[in-house]
Write a structure and sequence with these properties.
extended; 16 strands; 13-stranded antiparallel β-sheet; alpha+beta
């Protein structure tokens, strides 16, 4: 019974999600439709090379209605879905209470700057309210200069910084469990959290309460050190990468919990970096392609976790010396037209884009070796349609929605092209290797069949000529027993007839031998 209930829950959520791709019923008046368009257009730029607007005021209600129809049809055919319509209704009530039904529309504009870059704006319009519903509220408060950005070192080539409301986010998660799964599910969740607190001491409630609402993730690429990845015959040399996570916190709740667990391991060592006590794990061995020594520590109200202690060293230097990512000329150039007061940024530098491109090229080369040239060449050509390069974007919470602004090599037309190219790449990535594999299996079967024909001809020749096991056989000997054209090998394949009693062989161009054994 419980498995059926869970299955109904899952199916209700799946239909709710995928129902979004269904066309919405047009039940908005022309006047209201114009008003909604103007709300989106006010935040976008006209006169560029791309402008898109989609009205969504009734979309959520319509997709829930369609999902309900599908689930009721399934419930009539299968008892396992009997509870699904009721669960869907609870999902819908939860979405309404949390503000997802307040989504009114989405717009996007793109304006070329003349330097190969575009200024792209995207705006999700929501119904204005005196107080934003929790779904929108948890994604950030009043736009501001995010202080956690100061902890990102200058050698970061990819960075994501965000403002969020941890109390609202945690309340949203718990409310979702209770509203959709019911009181029992919520009780089970709270019991599990209580057990975690009494066991290893993970007080999840206290952890969320300790967060101040600023988080950053960065990938650094060393300016001096390089790493050789095992890709290709000679390997691929890239700048040594490291991952850094920085979270602004109110107290040491998270640090204390991790420290208790780490101190129980004899492989954990303590190291003082810039006056900060850092715990470092054993990590990967010296022969690992990428240096990995997980480390964490806390200083100046910021909790750090990194894949290598050097990343924490760089972060502390940036935080205290003011010479971090914000001072990087490329960062300043990209973000200069974007609002400094925001709720989150994303930055990808030129070195990150170039390194990613080289990794993709190496992956395509490996595909050529494994599956032949056709799928790799096609996928690579599709990928080349998408412009690569440095980019920057910011997110700004507004009283009537969320505005994203970005500067980069991809404008609206390129975004539309990439949206069309991605399904093609997925289809090519799935179907072409399957075709190549099927063709390889068919060729293998044809070669085995040729060996059987040759082996049968050898036996007939031996019987008619009273030849014993071990007797040598030539192509001329068995030619009378073969139909013309029955043995046709692909280019580069060599047939070895071998003596009587030994299986004939076909040697492929790569040296692989195929036999009947």
């Amino acid at each position: 019974m419980r498995s059926k209930f869970l299955r109904s829950q899952v199916m209700a959520l799946v239909f709710t999600f995928f129902g979004a791709i269904l066309p919405a019923t047009a039940d908005v008046s022309p006047e209201r439709s114009k008003q909604l368009f103007q709300m989106a257009a006010a935040e976008l730029d006209a006169g560029g090379d791309f402008f898109l607007y989609v009205e969504l005021e009734s979309a959520m209600a319509n997709l829930v209605g369609k999902a309900d129809e599908m689930l009721r049809t399934l419930a009539e055919e299968d008892d396992d879905f009997e509870a699904a319509p009721a669960i869907l209704q609870r999902v819908d009530q939860f979405l309404r209470a949390e503000g997802l039904h307040d989504l009114l529309g989405f717009g996007m504009s793109s304006v070329p700057r003349g330097d190969g870059f575009y200024l792209v704006k995207q705006f999700a319009v929501r119904r204005p309210a005196a107080e934003a519903p929790r779904f929108w509220r948890m994604m950030g408060g009043t736009p501001r200069s995010l202080g956690i950005l100061n902890a990102i070192p200058s050698d970061a080539e990819m960075a994501m910084v965000m403002d969020f409301r941890p109390d609202d986010f945690w309340a949203f998660v718990q409310r979702a469990v209770q509203a959709i799964g019911g009181d029992e599910a919520h009780k089970n969740m709270r019991n599990a959290l209580a057990e975690m607190k009494s066991g290893p001491g993970a007080d999840v409630d206290a952890m969320f309460a300790s967060l101040s609402g600023e988080l950053a993730l960065a990938v650094t690429l060393s300016p001096q050190q390089t790493t050789r990845l095992p890709m290709g015959e000679e390997g691929l040399e890239i700048p040594s990468p490291a991952l850094l996570i920085a979270v602004r916190v109110k107290d040491t709740t998270i640090l204390d919990w991790l420290a208790r667990m780490a101190d129980e391991s004899p492989q954990t060592r303590k190291e003082t970096i810039e006056g900060c006590l850092v715990r470092v794990g054993s990590g990967a061995g010296p022969d690992a392609p990428i240096p990995f020594q997980p480390a964490f520590g806390q200083a100046d109200g910021v909790f750090f976790f990194a894949s290598h202690p050097d990343a924490i060293r760089s972060a502390l230097t940036a935080l205290r010396g003011g010479a971090g990512l914000k001072t990087k000329p490329e960062f300043q150039r990209l973000f200069s037209p974007l609002p400094e007061q925001n709720n989150g940024i994303v930055f990808a530098g030129t070195r990150f884009a170039e390194t990613l491109r080289r990794l993709q090229k190496a992956q395509f080369d490996q595909m050529r070796e494994a599956n032949g040239g056709m799928p790799a060449a096609l996928l690579e050509r599709i990928w080349e349609w998408i412009p690569q390069g440095a980019s920057a974007s910011v997110r700004v919470m507004k009283p009537n929605g969320i505005l994203w602004q970005s500067v980069g090599p991809m404008g609206g037309k390129e975004a539309a092209l990439s949206a069309m190219a991605m399904p093609l790449a997925m289809i090519a990535g799935i179907s072409i290797p399957s075709f190549v594999s099927a063709r390889g299996h068919a060729q293998e079967a044809a070669l085995i069949n040729a060996l059987r024909i040759v082996d049968s001809a050898k036996e007939q020749w031996a019987m008619e000529n009273n030849k014993d096991e071990g007797a040598e056989v030539t192509e001329a000997d068995i030619a009378p027993y073969l139909k013309p054209g029955s043995i046709r090998l692909p280019p580069g394949h060599e047939l070895k007839i071998n003596p009587i009693g030994a299986s004939p062989e076909i040697v492929k161009p790569d040296g692989e031998t195929i036999t009947l054994d």
